[in-house]
Specification:
The protein is mainly alpha-helical. It has 19 helices and eleven strands. The strands form five sheets. It has a three-stranded antiparallel beta sheet. Strands 1-2 form a two-stranded parallel ribbon. It has a two-stranded antiparallel ribbon with strand order 5-6. The chain binds one RNA strand through helix 4, strand 6, helix 5, strand 11 and helix 10.
Length: 487
RNA sequence: GGCCCCAUCGUCUAGCGGUUAGGACAUCGGCCUCUCACGCCGGUAACGCGGGUUCGAUUCCCGCUGGGGUCACCA
């Protein structure tokens, strides 16, 4: 299996859909696992919808995910070009070859005419199954007239292939019609373009979504007519919306771009998607290396699955938390853009940034949450949650805050353990418990009622800032109106 | 409707003839605790139905039901 060649062939008609990412991922994993090549090809033969912007977004998304390609746009390779509209001559040549060998023919029926026939039939019998009637099948139309090229599907027999995940699939030829290979303008249709490209690019295995399973029999017919080697096929079960419908924009975020913007880690995204239709016993969380190691087509499932945003978040959370999956440095680098987006000034040293992020890491499910949670470290003054301040920075807390602050100021070293010890010594002497001052101190230091542990915060914030914020909090508490007496 | 595919907790799944049907997410209790989390402990929760095959079916076969995909000069 040293010469495995697989490909991902998106059409540049929008953002990269997470369903497409999953397809790309499985191909990529197989290539990496076998030491084969992962080829990226752009199928832009739908000129109505294809855009250069979309192509750029797709390439960027794949790079962000780390699904690097060995051959394709921007990296080159020996089987290029890797964009279909740059290969038009090839399709034309192969079509001529099929006409010459009697496997295809020119058809001058117009689309308008065929559409009319289809509708007429449907009007007569809504359940009827329209197939191209074969008007031009044996008519030998001249090349001088406007025409499409159709494949001459055998009237007898069936196509049988062994799918790597679904097993043997058999489809009678009678169920197929003489499909179009080349349009009037000479641009190939999906099935033809894919086969010509896959065969000329030496693709050995085609893995794609189950929604393409219906395309496999006609494609195999083309390979055979061309006298080309038929590649292996592996279809992946569908990823459906929670409602059971096909997953689309109306079901929430479906593009990689959105998850990137929401602060997901690329590995988290990939890890969630790989568990769709693939499993490895009870294991759920994998690093990319582990995935490459564990991947096989045999352990792919066949049942469709439903997208679950909560599980997705949970899987991402694991990748956010585990140091094994993401180093502190990577975590910091990835959080930076989100910090900047909040208008915060990044600390001069990565060490300080990493120390701050370490305190919010386990409670952050995304980088957005990490940036939000660490917000108070990077402002001159914390953004104050007024409800929390009103509740905890009350006159009764002023004195305790002062004692707390004093204890800290006298600590032998501004370091978590020492601060903790100093505060507890004071607490004991004053006959208080940490909970008697914790929330007031927390609001003074962070502006909120929920934050990382007090001593962690103090240590990261530093002596000067901490003492200043505590004093400001004490002042506010002392000046606050006494809470209403009751009972 | 034709063709193709699928079927274990709400969701993702383990299971490859004999299990108290396991894990994860979600959910509900509890513990931990300076808050929020994290972590830990525990609960609720599944083999769609009917025939076979077999000493024995979640597991193998058939049918049914249910669900999905696809039927373009889109991909």
């Amino acid at each position: 299996m040293a010469d495995v060649r697989v490909r991902f062939a998106p059409s540049p008609t929008g953002y990269l859909h997470i369903g497409g990412v999953r397809t790309a991922l499985f191909n990529w994993l197989y290539a990496r696992k076998t030491g084969g090549k992962f080829v990226l090809r752009i199928e832009d033969t739908d000129q109505e919808r294809s855009t250069p912007e979309s192509k750029a977004i797709i390439l960027e998304s794949l790079r962000w995910l780390g699904l690097t390609w060995d051959e394709g746009p921007e990296v080159g390779g020996d089987h290029g070009p890797y964009v279909q509209t740059e290969r038009l001559g090839l399709y034309r040549a192969y079509a001529e070859k099929l006409i010459a060998s009697g496997h295809a023919y020119r058809c001058t029926c117009t689309k308008a005419d065929l559409d009319a026939q289809r509708e007429a039939l449907k009007a007569r019998d809504p359940k009827a199954n329209f197939k191209y009637p074969g008007t031009c099948r044996d008519a030998n139309r001249p090349a001088s007239e406007p025409h499409v090229v159709r494949f001459k599907v055998p009237t007898e027999g069936a196509v049988t292939y062994v799918d790597k995940v679904f097993g043997e699939i058999k489809t009678p030829n009678g169920a197929q019609q003489d499909f179009v290979l080349l349009r009037t303008d000479g641009i190939p249709l999906y099935n033809f373009g894919a086969v010509v490209d896959d065969t000329t690019m030496g693709i050995t295995l085609v893995a794609r979504g189950r929604d393409h399973m219906v395309n496999t029999p006609p494609q195999i017919l083309i390979y055979e007519a061309l006298g080309a080697k038929v590649p292996e096929f592996a279809h992946l079960p569908m990823m459906l919306a929670p409602s059971g419908e096909k997953l689309s924009k109306r079901h929430g975020a479906v593009s990689v771009t959105e998850y990137r913007e929401k602060g997901y880690t690329p590995e988290g995204v990939l890890n969630y998607l790989v568990r769709f239709g693939w499993s490895c016993g009870d294991r759920e969380i994998f690093s990319m290396e582990e995935l490459v190691e564990a991947f096989t087509w045999e352990t792919c499932g066949r049942g469709d699955g439903k997208f679950d945003a909560k599980k997705f978040l949970a899987v991402n959370h694991e990748h956010m938390k585990q140091d094994r999956l993401q180093s502190a440095q990577t975590y910091a680098d990835r959080t930076k853009p989100f910090l900047v987006a909040r208008g915060l000034t990044l600390p001069a040293s990565d060490e300080h940034l990493m120390a701050a992020l370490k305190t919010v890491r386990e409670r952050s499910r995304t980088f957005i949450e990490a940036a939000e949670g660490a917000d108070f470290y990077f402002r001159a003054e914390p953004v104050v949650d007024e409800a929390a301040a009103t509740k905890f920075l009350v006159p009764a807390a002023a004195e305790r805050l002062q004692g707390f602050t004093q204890a800290l100021a006298n600590a032998p070293a501004w370091e978590e353990k020492a601060l903790d010890a100093a505060v507890h010594a004071w607490l004991e002497a004053a006959g208080l418990q940490i909970k008697d001052v914790a929330q007031a101190a927390r609001v003074a230091l962070t502006g909120r009622s929920a934050s990382p542990g007090l001593f962690e915060v103090l240590a990261v914030l530093g002596r000067e800032v901490s003492l200043a914020r505590l004093e400001a909090g004490r002042a506010r508490a002392a000046a606050a109106p006494a809470p209403a007496q009751n009972g």
